[in-house]
Amino acid sequence: MNIIVCVKAVPGSTEVKMDPATNTIVRDGGASVINPFDAAALEVALRLKDDAVRQGLPCRVAVLSMGIPTTAELLRDCIARGADDALLLSDRDFAGADTLATTYALACGVRRLGGADLVLCGKLAVDGDTAQIGPELAGALDAPCIAGVTEVLEVASGRVCARREVDGGAAVAEAPLPAVLTVSKDAAQLRMASIAGVMAAEGARIEVLSARQAGADPARIGRAGSPTQVVRSFVPKADASGIPIEGSVDEQADAVAALLKEMGI
Ligand code: FAD
Question: Domain of 52: which CATH number?
């Protein structure tokens, strides 16, 4: 079984800096960490690999990222924790991507890695926060998607069965392989790296590909391939005083409705 885990580098602090000229996140400043949802996805993949190894079955886990050159060190950390291969898509031409262009680039990466039985994404990235990439990637790869996975119950006979979170409860879903799963943050806690893992990772080769090397169409990546643009980003003004609403439940509901109407909502 081949598993690919999409790993995004996200700002390591809550102080996210924006470039006022381009309205984009400044990604080459402070330290980055593995998106917490992707850490959970990686652990889910490593547990599937552990199971396969116990049964004497071959299984490889590759990590895939689109990001700036220093993202290679996060991928190296993933290898220290048990991943076998790593591919970083890094090129100025990938910059400014919206989710469609990001998905296209990641789909190129999946193909460069030779495809996979399972592609795992985090359910969402804590900076972009759209939760679009996993389902979009499934569309790009023409594969089914199970979103919000909390536990992989079984991978057998060309199918994956997983428990997923739904509003107010849980559901079990099944899909034929190859499939894309988006993984919930609480699905698993990423294991620590072993000393042997750290030593192996030190000498591991992290493959870094430019857009051209990845076989990406220049018109479909980065800003050029992004049909959406951020027009303006800003921190909303907080009004500490608030508006006290009193009265019966009906009166309070009417007051809220009137306020929303006043705000044009
Ligand atoms: P989500 O969909 O929330 O992430 C889900 C999962 O997808 C992650 O957990 C991870 O597994 C995977 N994933 C996501 N991104 C990556 C990645 N890069 N590598 C590997 N795996 C990944 N950003 C800019 O820097 N410049 C811009 O100009 C810009 N413009 C944007 C315009 C719009 C309209 C929007 C909506 C976003 C824009 N962004 C821009 C942000 C950019 O789209 C996101 O960083 C990127 O598309 C991933 O989306 P997300 O963070 O919402 O991921």
Answer: 3.40.50.620
